[in-house]
Write a structure and sequence with these properties.
Layout: E1 5-7, E2 11-14, E3 20-23, E4 32-36, E5 40-46, E6 53-55, E7 59-63, E8 66-69, E9 71-73, E10 76-82, E11 90-98, E12 105-115, E13 121-124, H1 135-151, E14 171-172, E15 179-182, E16 185-189, E17 192-196, E18 202-204, E19 209-217, E20 221-229, E21 232-242, E22 249-250, E23 255-259, E24 270-276, E25 279-281, H2 285-291
Parallel strand pairs: 4-12, 13-15
Antiparallel strand pairs: 1-6, 2-3, 5-10, 7-8, 7-11, 9-10, 11-12, 14-17, 15-16, 17-24, 18-23, 19-20, 19-22, 20-21, 21-23, 21-24, 24-25
Length: about 300
């Protein structure tokens, strides 16, 4: 297959935010973006005339040890950069590299300042059997966690297109990042957004993709994971019903299941999670990031 080619300039303009010209190594760090823990931002690299052609496959971004694949944009090349909810606050560089192996070199860099998410604390009460797990249940949970992570390891070609949508018409609870205390015991932070809705309410795919996992797990209950391509995965937990199967291709807004209260939960709701190249990110920041790329039309 002939690789798609783009004109990558020596002079790039980062347009997702205040526009500042970044000129090779001399201006490294000249453009500084400020991003909260857990947020997603878009960086675009517009086309300039008379520049050297490079293959899209030969471009890769790097941030905090994570690879960030590039994709085509009407103006040239773009990346969706996810800042993990526990990335340390401070300033570090996003770099866009060209080539491979010994030929790899940094094309451009942008300084990213990560600020604290200021996540709150949420106290929950659940039945003891859902909190103090016996050895058999612990083994089950460990296996299910590995299964979930394995389902999200591949970086496949981009399937998503256009703006991302909300998966449910329910009420957003703003729970991403909350430090949960369950029955008085501190637990890990909440990695998704909860949407309150009646049991049986439809749940839709937030964009095009392929179903990578359909499962019934101890914590997440009936669960669906969609691979949208380029390391972007969305998760839908606690469903009462699932209407898709693993390997099935789905379209944006297609119903994939229904809101429920399966797994460990205090009542009917949708847990909506997103992983972006391994980073645990706030799902609500994803639609805004794609809108910043001009992706507003939803067929």
């Amino acid at each position: 297959m002939t690789p798609i080619r783009f004109w990558l300039p020596l002079l790039l303009l980062i347009t997702a935010g205040p526009t500042t010209a970044v000129q090779g190594q001399e201006a490294a760090g000249a453009d500084v973006r400020t991003v909260r823990q857990g947020d997603v931002i878009a960086l675009t690299f517009p086309v300039r005339d008379g520049m050297q052609a490079v293959s899209l496959d030969a471009l890769v971004g790097r941030f905090q040890g994570r690879e960030v694949p590039a994709f085509s944009d009407p103006d040239g090349v773009a990346v969706l950069l996810g800042v993990d909810m526990e990335d340390a606050p401070g300033t570090s560089d996003f770099v866009l590299e060209r080539g491979a192996g010994e030929e790899r070199r940094v094309g451009e860099r942008v300084s990213i300042t990560v600020t604290p998410g200021d996540f709150g604390v949420q106290a929950l009460s659940l039945p003891d059997k859902q909190v103090d797990l016996d050895s058999e249940t612990l083994r089950r949970v460990e296996i299910e966690q590995r299964t979930m992570l394995t389902a999200m390891q591949r970086v496949t070609p981009r399937a998503w297109d256009g703006a991302f949508i909300l998966p449910s018409d329910g009420n957003i609870q703003n729970t991403f990042g909350l430090r949960r205390v369950i029955n008085g015991q501190p637990r890990r932070p909440h990695t998704g957004e909860d949407i309150s809705a009646p049991a049986g309410a439809p749940v839709s795919a937030i964009n095009h993709g392929t179903i990578r996992l359909v499962a019934d797990h101890f914590f997440s209950g009936k669960s669906v994971v969609i691979d949208h391509g380029l390391g972007l995965y969305s998760m839908y937990f606690h469903l009462s019903d699932v209407t898709v199967h693993a390997g099935e291709r789905v379209a944006r807004s297609q119903v994939i299941g229904a809101v429920g209260a399966t797994g460990r939960t205090s009542g009917p709701h949708l847990h909506w999670g997103v992983r972006l190249n391994g980073a645990r990110v706030n799902p609500l920041s994803l639609p805004a990031a794609t809108v910043s790329l001009g992706m507003r039309d939803i067929p």
